[in-house]
C-alpha cells in the first residue's frame, strides 16, 4: 500500500527521532542502547503490529514529548530480560557488543515472536523513575529548608513508583561532604562543580505523589517493568534502581492515581508551620499544555497567599529550551525563580550555581 505524503512525512520524522535519541544515548555513555534503537528502526516494518504502531505513531515522537524511542527501548529491554527471547537476551549486556547484523537478526526474530506483547509497552510513557535525580531534587529541598527553617510537606507529580519521594532515605556526597541517611545501601555521588553552599538537610513530615499509571512497588512484575526502563548498558543505574527498590519495598511511598493538574489543585496548598513543596523531574513535557497552565495558575494563586510561616515552594528538574536539564526553585512569598544547578538527565555531574 502506497503511503500518502502526510504518512511518509510522519514516518520520516519518527525515524529521525530514533536517530536523534540514539545519538543522545551514545553521548550519555549508552552506545549499546543507541545501537539497539538504530537496529530496530532499520528492521521495523508495517507488516508487524509493533512496527506498524511505531511507524504510524500519531503523536510527537521526540524526547520532549512522547519519547517514542524510549518506549521501544524499554519494550525490547523488558523482552530481553524476560527470557522469552533468548537469542536477543544473549546479545544484551554484560555480553560482548554484538555485530550489527546479529543485532538486527535477533530483533527481527524477537518482534515476530512477541509482536502483540511489545505493542502494549507503547501505551505507557517512560517511567524511568531515575533515582539519581534525587541528588538534584534533594538539593532543592535543602535550599527550601535553609531559606524557610521549616519541615517539609512534599508533593510530587509524575511519581511513577515514587522512588524519588524517598530521597531522604538515600545518602549523598556533594562538594566532598556526605549528606543524607546513615546506613543506607544507596549513595549518590555525582561529580561536583561549584561552591559548597548547598543548604540544610530537610525534615520531611508528609509525602505524597501522583501518576496516571502508578507503579505498585510491591508487585514483582511492576518492579521488573520499572527496571526495564533503565538503559541496559548502564550498570550503575541498574544497581541504583535495584537498591532503591529494595528500600522502597520495606516502606513503599504513597502514589495516587491522578491527573497532575487535579492532584496539585487538591493537595498543594500552604499550611502553617511547614514548607509545602511541589516537585517534579523530567515530567513537564508529558503534561498537556492545559495541565501545565492549570498547575502554574494554581501555584501562583496559592503562592500569593503564602507567608513566612506557611511558605510554598516549586522545585523542578526539567529540560530547558536547549533540552538541557536545569534545577530551579520558585519560592513564595515573593515567587522569585532561582536557577540552582545544571546537570545531565542521569545526574552524573552537577554544576551548582549558588
From TrEMBL:
**How is this protein named in the record?**
DUF2332 domain-containing protein
Q: Name one Pfam family in it.
A: DUF2332
Q: Which domain of life is it from?
A: Bacteria
Entry's InterPro entries?
UCP012608
Amino acid at each position: 500500500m502506497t503511503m500518502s505524503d502526510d504518512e511518509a512525512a510522519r514516518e520520516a520524522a519518527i525515524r529521525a527521532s530514533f536517530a536523534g535519541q540514539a545519538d543522545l544515548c551514545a553521548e550519555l555513555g549508552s552506545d549499546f542502547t543507541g545501537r539497539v534503537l538504530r537496529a530496530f528502526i532499520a528492521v521495523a516494518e508495517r507488516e508487524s503490529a509493533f512496527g506498524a504502531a511505531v511507524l504510524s505513531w500519531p503523536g510527537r515522537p521526540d524526547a520532549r514529548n512522547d519519547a517514542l524511542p524510549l518506549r521501544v527501548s524499554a519494550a525490547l529491554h523488558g523482552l530481553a530480560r524476560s527470557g522469552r527471547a533468548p537469542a536477543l537476551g544473549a546479545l544484551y549486556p554484560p555480553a560482548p557488543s554484538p555485530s550489527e547484523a546479529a543485532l538486527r537478526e535477533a530483533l527481527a526474530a524477537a518482534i515476530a515472536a512477541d509482536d502483540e506483547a511489545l505493542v502494549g509497552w507503547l501505551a505507557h510513557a517512560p517511567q524511568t523513575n531515575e533515582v539519581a535525580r534525587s541528588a538534584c531534587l534533594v538539593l532543592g529541598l535543602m535550599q527550601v529548608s535553609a531559606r524557610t527553617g521549616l519541615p517539609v510537606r512534599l508533593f510530587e507529580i509524575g511519581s511513577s513508583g515514587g522512588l524519588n519521594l524517598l530521597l531522604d532515605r538515600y545518602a549523598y556526597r556533594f562538594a566532598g561532604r556526605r549528606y543524607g541517611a546513615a546506613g543506607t545501601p544507596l549513595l549518590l555521588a555525582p561529580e561536583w562543580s561549584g561552591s559548597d553552599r548547598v543548604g540544610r538537610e530537610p525534615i520531611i513530615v508528609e509525602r505524597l505523589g501522583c501518576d496516571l499509571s502508578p507503579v505498585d512497588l510491591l508487585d514483582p512484575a511492576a518492579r521488573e517493568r520499572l527496571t526495564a526502563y533503565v538503559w541496559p548498558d548502564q550498570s550503575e543505574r541498574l544497581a541504583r534502581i535495584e537498591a532503591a527498590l529494595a528500600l522502597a519495598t520495606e516502606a513503599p511511598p504513597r502514589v495516587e492515581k491522578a491527573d497532575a493538574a487535579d492532584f496539585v489543585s487538591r493537595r498543594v496548598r500552604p499550611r502553617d508551620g511547614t514548607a509545602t513543596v511541589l516537585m517534579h523531574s523530567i515530567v513537564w513535557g508529558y503534561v498537556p499544555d492545559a495541565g501545565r497552565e492549570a498547575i502554574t495558575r494554581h501555584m501562583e494563586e496559592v503562592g500569593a497567599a503564602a507567608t513566612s510561616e506557611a511558605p510554598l515552594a516549586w522545585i523542578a528538574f526539567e529540560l530547558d529550551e536547549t533540552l538541557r536539564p536545569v534545577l530551579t526553585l520558585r519560592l513564595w512569598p515573593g515567587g522569585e525563580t532561582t536557577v540552582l544547578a545544571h546537570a545531565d538527565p542521569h545526574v552524573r555531574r552537577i554544576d551548582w550555581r549558588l
